[in-house]
Design a protein that fits this description.
By secondary structure, the chain is an alpha/beta fold. Helices cover about 40% and strands about 15% of the residues. It is built from 7 helices and 6 strands, in the order αβαβαβααααβββ. It has a 6-stranded mixed beta sheet.
Length: about 220
């Protein structure tokens, strides 16, 4: 029989990787998790939150979905995994930061212009959460796609402010929102600056990104 690659990876984790962090995991079990950051990122396999942030076990509460989208807080209670995670992170874990991280070459953002297969009904509905970020062009080039990716990040930050528990803590100064756009090919994260309504490279920024207190999406150019 061919070698089961996944099984081999699980065994390597148990035998080699886990022992390096065993004490940390035991503390996290005994004392529970207390992450300071909720990281809402795209499901894209090229986006690796722990590598970007230099964090380890117990430091990030992660939500991954297509496009790093945030559903609206509209009272339609149900099976909303991302909304449930936001509520849990803010109300139960009491995180002090929420990061929304989009990225370059995002297939979800590209699909806003090119559509999805007819059978992908859930995906088509989900992508509507990014529709307001799309530009009025039929065939977007690289610059238009990057602008759309960044506009989508700001749109999600604005939606977060519609969550009562988020707004309350942001206005109280106990929770901060951060918008990021990761350029995969450069290894550079561009952070959103609400004052200027634009993204700037982390290497040149004076902060790790700021969230909106007013609608800033139209300012992103």
């Amino acid at each position: 029989m061919p070698e089961d690659d996944l099984l081999q990876r699980l065994r390597r984790f148990h035998d080699h990787a886990f022992p390096l962090h065993e004490e940390r995991f035991r503390v996290l079990v005994d004392q529970g998790q207390h992450p300071a950051t909720l990281f809402i990122g795209c499901s894209d396999s090229r986006l690796v939150p722990y590598m970007l942030t230099g964090t380890g076990p117990g430091e990030l509460f992660l939500v991954r979905n297509v496009g790093a989208f945030v559903p609206p807080y509209d009272g339609s209670w149900g099976y909303h995994g991302t909304s449930a995670a936001i509520e849990f992170a803010v109300l139960n874990l009491q995180v002090s930061r929420i990061i929304v991280c989009g990225h370059s070459h995002c297939g979800g953002i590209r699909a806003l212009y090119g559509g999805v297969p007819a059978a992908a009904r859930n995906l088509a509905a989900w992508l509507e959460l990014g529709r307001e970020a799309a530009l009025p062009v039929a065939e977007p080039g690289p610059d238009a796609l990057r602008r759309t990716e960044q506009r989508a990040v700001v749109l999600q930050l604005e939606r977060l402010m519609d969550y009562p528990m988020v707004r309350e803590q942001v206005e109280a100064g106990t929770l901060s929102l951060h918008g990021w756009h990761y350029v995969i090919e450069d290894g550079e994260v561009h952070v959103f600056d609400a004052a200027s309504g634009s993204f700037m490279a982390a290497a040149d920024a004076g902060h790790a990104g700021t969230g909106p207190y007013e609608p800033y999406a139209e300012s992103v150019v």
